Amino acid sequence: MSKTVLHRAESRGDANHGWLHSKHTFSFGDYYNPERTQFGVLRVLNDDYVAPGKGFGTHPHNDMEIISIPLEGDLEHKDSMGNTSVIRKGDIQVMSAGTGVTHSEYNKNSDRPVKFMQIWIFPREKGLTPRYDQIELDDAAMENNLLQILSPNSDDAGVWIHQDAWFHMGRLKRGYSSSYRLKKQGNGVYLFVLSGSVDVEDIELHERDGLGVWDSDAVSISVKSDRAEILIMEVPMGN
């Protein structure tokens, strides 16, 4: 029998710093909920709004796989590995912090905000060599389809990380119905609704709701609104 955990959008932690407004699905910063510290190796799922011209100054990370998915605007990245880049909606960025890296993230524009998902995943081992990558996703391939955007394999679709995790994104139309089959036994799925309404395992989810499912081989998905955009994160349940 599959197990589920439901996180409604309004139940998330809310941190409003003016220049940054962040919603935390899991404990982060000053928001701590002992029942919501992580889902398997998925440690952070932040829904971030950064005001025009503002951003995160240079700060350190280590032993974490950090994924950024822009939803709106342009996010400028600089790091101690020498990478300087801008990521936009339709891109995905990954940084393996490993033995240690510093970076900054700024809203490149002075006239409009940046909105992006910031996701942290524990790597399968510590002390790895830091690395950085970003790609532009195949926008058309997301139409009424679950497009793989991340995996553990450098020769597979999307970016890759040091963990047995797979991410998929889709922009789906009303009537879309499918079953997501897990790639690895023992993994779970955390599905996050970016927009619209979907039924997952017969549980109705709306914009910014999240549902974790584990002890299951597959997860059923059906779209209830005219359009829906979803992010599926399959991750190991062990830490």
Automatic annotation (TrEMBL):
Question: In which domain of life is the source organism classified?
Answer: Bacteria
Keywords carried by this UniProt record: Iron, Metal-binding
Name the InterPro entries on file.
Pirin, Pirin_N_dom, Quercetinase_C, RmlC-like_jellyroll, RmlC_Cupin_sf
Q: What are the names of the required cofactors?
A: Fe cation
Q: Does the keyword Signal apply?
A: no
Residue ranges of domain Pirin N-terminal in the record: 13-121
CDD domains on file: cupin_Yhhw_N
Annotated residues for binding of Fe cation: H59, H61, H103, E105
Quercetin 2,3-dioxygenase C-terminal cupin domain: residues covered: 149-235
Free-text cofactor note: Binds 1 Fe cation per subunit.
Give the molecular function GO annotations: metal ion binding
Which protein family is it in? Answer: Belongs to the pirin family.
Q: What is this protein called?
A: Pirin N-terminal domain-containing protein
Species this protein is from:
Alkalitalea saponilacus
